[in-house]
Amino acid sequence: VGAWPAKLKVIDVALHKFLTPEGERRVRAVAEDAEAGKRSITLVKVARAFAGFTLLDVTIKTGRTHQIRVHLTHEGHAIAGDEKYGDFALNKALARGDTVRGQRFDRMFLHARNLRFEHPASGEVIELSAPLPAECEALLQALAPARQAPGPDLATRTPS
Question: Which domains does the chain have, with CATH numbers?
Answer without folding.
Answer: 8-147 (3.30.2350.10)
